[in-house]
Amino acid sequence: VSTIGVLTSGGDAPGMNAAIRAVVRTAIANGLKVKGIRRGYSGLLEEDIIDMDASSVSDIIQRGGTILYTARCLEFKTPEGQQKGAEICRKHGIDGLVVIGGDGSFQGARKLANLGINTVALPGTIDLDIACTDYTIGFDTAVNTAMEAIDKVRDTSTSHERCSIIEVMGRNAGYIALWCGIANGAEDILITERYDHDEAKIIENIKHSRSIGKKHHIIVNAEGIGDSNGMAKRIEAATGMETRATIIGHIQRGGSPTCIDRVYASEMGAYAVDLLCKGESNRVVGYRSGGLVDYDIQEALEMQKDIDQYLYDVSRTLSRSLQS
Ligand code: F6P
């Protein structure tokens, strides 16, 4: 491998810049050239490609977002788009590529690897919904941002003795909701993977909270369940307790990455370049049992992931421990 390309794809995530920085600097340390591909696979197809050196990644490790910009690209899902992408890589001398993104981005990485471009993918998403890894770049920052926001809602919720439904991101996965639910001491945690859509139980729980003198009732609701505004209206009607919905939204995707996101993203970026230097391709990097691992992309995409049942059980015990 002589020239490494790097791109970010799909939803941005805090820590992507740390990963880009690590890719660029590790490649340079190995005597390689580096090209940044802007705006994900869309930018690849439009040849939005820039030369990068060690100073191109100065002063970015602490920044949220991605200096390479990102996009979701439909054209790259087609065989023609993928063929064109591989040809553009070859034209620019890119013989090793690091793709930072989620599951969707891994599909594109696998296609490019099959078309002869050595490719390694890094898990970059706030949702933590990638089966082959216990850690994804951005989750730690997002969950801390959401946790702080929920603490703030809790203050005003208590003052007004209200019920608050707070909706967090995660697409179809409930990791952000579960972690925040525990970290914020929510009375109810609704996660996509376990929610039975039985609102009567929530209403009972609220009435019980009231009866034992609780001043607020915090419900953390996962985006995959949604309908927080509708839920608020129905709960208010059924309980008589003033209820408000707060959808935290994209604030969870931004901001300065936490130390964990900076360090793990740096380690993963370096590891991706090490794999390419060893001639590896079609790999995705993960974090398991305290260390980095890598898998065949196809194998990784076929893995299944579910919420940790013990953690879920703990969340239930702690949120309802005041009930007899
Ligand atoms: O995958 C990250 C994520 O923020 C999800 O949690 C959310 O469902 C989605 O992206 C939102 O995407 P967009 O920014 O395109 O609205």
From TrEMBL:
Species this protein is from: Anaeromicropila herbilytica
Assembly mode: Homotetramer.
Keyword Disulfide bond found: no
Activity control summary: Allosterically activated by ADP and other diphosphonucleosides, and allosterically inhibited by phosphoenolpyruvate.
Uppermost EC category: transferase
EC number of the protein: 2.7.1.11
Cofactor: Mg(2+)
Subcellular location: Cytoplasm
Function: Catalyzes the phosphorylation of D-fructose 6-phosphate to fructose 1,6-bisphosphate by ATP, the first committing step of glycolysis.
GO CC term, one of those recorded: 6-phosphofructokinase complex
Gene3D superfamilies: 3.40.50.450, Phosphofructokinase domain
One protein family per Pfam: PFK
Binding, ADP: R21, A22, V23, V24, R25, R154, G185, A186, E187, K214, K215, H216
HAMAP family tied to this protein: Phosphofructokinase_I_B1
Residue span, Phosphofructokinase domain: 4-276
Sample GO molecular function, one term: identical protein binding
Family: Belongs to the phosphofructokinase type A (PFKA) family. ATP-dependent PFK group I subfamily. Prokaryotic clade 'B1' sub-subfamily.
Pathway given in the UniProt record: Carbohydrate degradation; glycolysis; D-glyceraldehyde 3-phosphate and glycerone phosphate from D-glucose: step 3/4
Protein name, UniProt field: ATP-dependent 6-phosphofructokinase
